[in-house]
Write a structure and sequence with these properties.
20 helices; mainly alpha; about 325 residues; about 70% helix; elongated
Length: about 325
């Protein structure tokens, strides 16, 4: 089957590929010699392949059934004009079999790279979250390159979360065009969260500056800001107080965050907000999501509320609660 897959031609031997894929998936489910033997066969076939499409197919098989032995072979193709992208993707997939070896191979490939594939390799390093000094230097060096290289470098710096890169990350968002603005915003969130693990004060400053750069039509980004803020600092009274004045899109996003995060003391904080703003349904809606038991007395009381929005919400919640509301 392997011989038929790598024979001369465009690489469209459908039957051979289908059989090969079945064997690959079967071998991938096993451990030890059987899997290693199939991996060795794929690697031998890849070295023998003379057709780009066949080589790509074999590289894809390595993503499924490859391991440590595949890393040095894949590294040989990472700067290939036609195979580089597929090879690097497979390399990323398998790198955790030996991160130390993969790190060295990736650095060697980067030293031989050109402008066509450098961004691809830097992206691989950032995805694998390599933080060695040599990689840090590379992340920063490509910031002056193409937009694709710059994005890869920013992704690497975001994983590092070093205070000295705050200006660079913030600038990337401020000056980004419509194509990169959303992506660079997300990179800033990743950066801030990683920075917060080292220096909360600097992280909070960066997050505040990032929020100040939002445009009026970027309201959905507020939820992203809140998510990182909650992760670093927990849910503040300020966020909950301003929640009442947020647009509906932001309120829904914040409620989802509160439900998913299971933040300490959030039930008590929401009940405090209900007491302070009894006519605003958003706090009861949030409480019903994070602590149904605590919300039940408020729902029962709200069924007779003179505030139409509260009554409507409680009627809806009582239906959802069913016979669990007593």
């Amino acid at each position: 089957v392997s011989g038929r897959s790598v024979s001369e031609g465009p690489g469209n031997h459908a039957d051979a590929r289908k059989q090969f894929m079945k064997i690959t998936h079967t071998a991938a489910k096993t451990a030890g010699k059987q899997r290693q033997a199939h991996e060795a066969l794929i690697l031998a076939a890849l070295k023998a392949s003379k057709a780009t499409e066949v080589s790509i197919f074999l590289i894809q098989q390595l993503e499924i059934c490859g391991g440590k032995a595949a890393l040095p072979v894949l590294a040989e193709f990472m700067n290939d004009k036609h195979l580089g992208l597929n090879t690097t993707r497979a390399f990323i997939q398998l790198a955790n079999y030996d991160r130390v070896q993969a790190s060295g191979l990736l650095l060697e490939a980067l030293s031989k790279s050109n402008s066509e594939n450098k961004a691809n390799l830097v992206n691989a390093a950032s995805v694998l979250a390599y933080k060695d000094a040599k990689f840090v230097t590379i992340y920063r060096s490509v910031l002056a390159g193409s937009d694709v290289e710059k994005t890869a470098g920013l992704q690497g710096l975001a994983q590092l979360g070093e205070a000295e890169d705050s200006v660079v990350l913030l600038k990337s968002f401020k000056e980004a065009n419509s194509i990169y603005r959303s992506r660079n915003f997300r990179l800033n969130l990743v950066y801030t969260e990683n920075l917060g693990k080292k220096d909360k004060s600097v992280a909070n400053t960066h997050l505040g500056l990032l929020k100040s750069e939002l445009k009026t039509n970027e309201v959905p980004y507020i939820t992203g800001i809140a998510s990182v803020d909650f992760t670093i600092n927990g849910v503040s009274e300020q966020w909950l107080t301003t929640m009442a004045d947020c647009n509906r899109h932001t309120q829904v996003g914040l409620i989802r965050l509160l439900k998913a995060g299971k933040y300490k003391g959030i039930s008590e904080k929401l009940q405090k907000q209900i007491s302070a703003s009894p006519a605003n349904p958003v706090y009861l809606e949030a409480l019903a999501q994070v602590d149904r038991l605590a919300a039940t007395p408020y729902v029962i009381k709200g069924l007779n509320s003179s505030t139409a929005e509260i009554k409507a919400l409680c009627t809806k919640l009582s239906v959802e609660y069913g016979d669990k509301i007593v």
